[in-house]
């Protein structure tokens, strides 16, 4: 568990972070979101002591971070950033294995770990292990960056706009990968972004920051449903909020399991989002969809009225 208790950071007289309190339970994915300069990166970097906090307390598993040796702390905490920070003259495999080597793991164990992580991140070992960072696409380099952050199996992973520089399609697939990986490894992840759609998709818990302060925090659905002020409402999409909420809702949670009278022209699966369902209804000009399982067997019906009921 990570706890921030009345934490501030001053640069000169200016407070970049101004008395924030936040608890991040083990295994949760907490996203810090807000416009440029609001103090997100500073908050993240105080957790691994790349920046020392000026006031308040930061605790990991109940222990103040100042009681840890800085090197030990940083090796316990994975850190992935936007431009990856890979060593340009090292191969992918050497880059990924850097922290385990610093920790003096046996060579064979480091090699096995590197291969395991490359597989986890969808990087073919034979193809990529010997490549250098300049030979990788942006998306591949980001995967290497995340693999490196996970190499020594840290309990905590800090991610600072890790997908910020990518095109929307690569970004979306890496977000899906992160969710898939997190469902297996259950790290405590603190993720920084200025993109509310990314926050809504990834987070268990969203922390909205403005001018160094936390102005709202909660589950994505709560923030969408009850933005605390006009600023948060604008951030979550204003009048576009309905579609954002639909993107967070699974068809399986809304469908009528008994119904079987929908036209077969269009079908969704229980794991598809309600946003996709609405899009298909608009495209096909229907107000009901068939819901099918992966084998194509009918498991229910989704009437448009379910989406409208949800809003009520
Ligand atoms: N080393 C520093 N010296 C002085 N001021 C700093 C320093 N680092 C950050 N700041 C200031 O602290 C404030 C918060 O910066 P921070 O990088 O945490 O914001 P951010 O929300 O991560 O922004 P962005 O999304 O643009 O990265 C900004 O006003 C910034 O100019």
Automatic annotation (TrEMBL):
Residues 255-312 form the CBS domain. Residues 2-236 form the ABC transporter domain. SMART domains: AAA. The keyword GTP-binding does not apply. PROSITE patterns: ABC_TRANSPORTER_1, ABC_TRANSPORTER_2, CBS. Coiled coil: none annotated. InterPro entries: AAA+_ATPase, ABC_transporter-like_ATP-bd, ABC_transporter-like_CS, CBS_dom, CBS_dom_sf, P-loop_NTPase. GO terms for molecular function: ATP binding. Keywords: ATP-binding, CBS domain, Nucleotide-binding, Transport. Belongs to the ABC transporter superfamily. This is ABC transporter ATP-binding protein.
């Amino acid at each position: 568990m990570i706890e921030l208790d009345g934490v501030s950071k001053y640069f000169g007289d200016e407070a970049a972070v101004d008395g924030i309190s936040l608890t991040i339970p083990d295994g949760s994915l907490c996203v810090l979101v807000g416009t440029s300069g609001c103090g997100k990166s500073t908050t993240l970097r105080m957790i691994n002591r790349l920046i020392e906090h000026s006031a308040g307390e930061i605790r990991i598993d109940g222990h103040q971070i100042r009681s840890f040796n800085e090197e030990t702390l940083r090796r316990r905490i994975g850190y992935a950033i936007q431009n990856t920070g890979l060593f340009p003259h090292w191969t992918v495999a050497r880059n990924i294995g850097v922290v385990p080597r610093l920790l003096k793991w046996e060579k064979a164990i480091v090699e096995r770990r590197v291969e395991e992580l490359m597989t986890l991140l969808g990087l073919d070992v034979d193809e990529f292990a010997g490549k250098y960072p300049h030979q990788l696409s942006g998306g591949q380099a980001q995967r290497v960056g995340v693999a490196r952050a996970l190499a020594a199996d840290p309990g905590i992973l800090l991610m600072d706009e890790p997908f910020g520089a990518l095109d929307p399609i690569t970004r979306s697939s890496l977000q899906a990968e992160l969710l898939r990986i997190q469902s297996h490894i259950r790290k405590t992840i603190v993720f920084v972004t200025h993109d509310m759609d990314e926050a809504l998709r990834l987070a268990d818990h969203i922390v909205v920051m403005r001018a160094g302060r936390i102005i709202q925090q909660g589950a994505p659905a709560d923030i969408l449903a009850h933005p605390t002020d006009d600023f948060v409402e604008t951030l979550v999409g204003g009048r576009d909020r309905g579609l954002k909420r639909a993107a967070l809702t699974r068809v399986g949670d809304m469908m009528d399991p008994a119904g079987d009278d929908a036209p077969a022209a269009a079908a969704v699966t229980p794991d598809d989002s309600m946003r996709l369902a609405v899009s298909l209804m608009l495209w096909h000009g229907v107000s009901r969809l068939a819901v099918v399982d992966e084998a194509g067997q009918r498991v229910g019906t989704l009437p448009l009225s379910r989406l409208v009921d949800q809003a009520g």
